[in-house]
Amino acid sequence: MKKRTREQLQRELLAGLKRHRRYLARKETPSVPGRSLRNSHNHSIFHGYRSIDAPELLSIYNISKEDGSLYTQAIDFYDQIRRYVGQEKCVISFKNTQVISAAAIVVIYAAIEESLQKGTARATIEWSGSNSAVVVNKQLRNINIHLLIQRKQITYSFRNSQSMPIVRGTSNQYVDDIIDYVQQFIYENEMSPEEEYIFADAVTEAINNVGLHAYPDTDAQDRNWWLMCDVKDGQLFLAIYDTGVGIPATVLEKKWFWASLKAFYPEEYNELIKLIPGFESSGLKFVVPQKLKDAQMIYLSMQGDVTGTRRSKHGQGSKSIRALVDDTEDGKLWIFSHKGLYTYPAEDNETGLYKLPKQLPGTLVQWNIKLS
Known about the structure:
With 372 residues, the chain is an alpha/beta fold. The protein has helices spanning 6-27, 70-84, 102-118, 133-142, 145-149, 175-186, 193-214, 247-251, 257-264, 266-275, 294-303, 319-326, and strands spanning 44-46, 49-53, 57-58, 90-93, 99-100, 123-126, 167-170, 224-232, 235-242, 332-344, 353-370. A hairpin with a 2-residue loop joins strand 1 and strand 2 (49-53). InterPro entries: HATPase_C_sf. It comes from Marinobacterium stanieri.
């Protein structure tokens, strides 16, 4: 009997999994006790493979509802990946997915990559079979997610005018290549030197923040970031994600923290002083999150040093990160970290600060930039 290839085995597995799902649907039998088949994001184990299903709309922008929001569904998918991929044999399934946002997929990609590095169990991908399958599957192939899941070596090409894959790097690795790609293929060499400088400064600042702050107890070669660059409906979506300790944790360690807290949140500052006299020198910074939400901590990180004593660019608030939005008509900046979201400009919310229904580990910075 001729030995079957890994690709043949994967095709047989996915075909069998589809038949198994149809059988469960006919029997109307939940495959996880206490959970309905329809609502389960991780609902099927077939021949030892656990199916982890992406939602129909894979996006983290909708945070308006506590239960059932797009954001919550995406983070549930993320959590399942972190829990099972690499530890058990898994099928990462996009079979019902109709829409994928840049911010969500870069987070999911990072979760898959880190999970595979921590375990040896096999994983395979199930492509979309939805009405939008052609578009969704093209998106997934463009970012090399199938090669990642198959543990194949990925090399980056910045000379493909059609798309740029998700890039994982450390320090300032690939930054020049990324900026050159944006200039050449997205702006078609129409960016002025000043515009290119603003763009490069924003990306460099965000990536530098990863190396300097996100992984305080990690060797430099392991301080990873992931970058996604995509164009859709006349907008450039540029997202940078890291899985570090998060902004709410790092901002507490800044020398300028107390001055900024007093300047921007005087009521909360005074409450802390009343609670613990001599609070600034007490070392009890762990009490701060009881008075300040994660979104407020992100806001403080974007304001930085208000004392005027700063000697370096870092920690003075990320003016260059905001400048990319200020320089662009209808631009928008999103910063997710832990259970906080900061948006700039604020628009419908006076402060641009939101509490997330579930925690997103690390930090995600995304710019939406309208292309002329």
